[in-house]
Amino acid sequence: MPIITVEGFSPAEVPADRRLVLAIEEDVVVDILHACGGNARCTTCRVEFLAGEPETMTVAEKERLAQRGLSGVRLSCQILCDHDMTVRAISRLGGSGRPDSGPKPATTITPPAVWTRKDA
What we know:
Helix content: 10-25%
Shape: globular
C-alpha cells in the first residue's frame, strides 16, 4: 500500500489506486479544498509534489492547468495513489473564508480518466 505524506502532517498508508484528494483529506486528515467536487474544474485541490510525482496525468488535468496558466502544481483530484508520494497541500479550508471544502469527490476519477504523459 502506498504511503502518502503531506508536508507538516504524519504520513498515512492508503489503499492502492485511491484518489489523492481523498487520501489527503480522509487518510492524512488535511483540510484540502475541492470546490468543484473533484471534477478537474476549479484547481482548488492543487498540490506541489516534493517527491514521487507521477509521470502521467489526465487530459482533463493537463487542459485545466494550461487554461489557468499554472505550472509546478498538480490537481490531486486527478491522481491515483499507486506509489509513495510527498506533497504540499496548497489550498486549504482553514483561512480560505469558504464555508466548507466542497462536495465530496467520487471514489473514481471524474471526468473519466484519459491518461497522457505529463511532459507530452
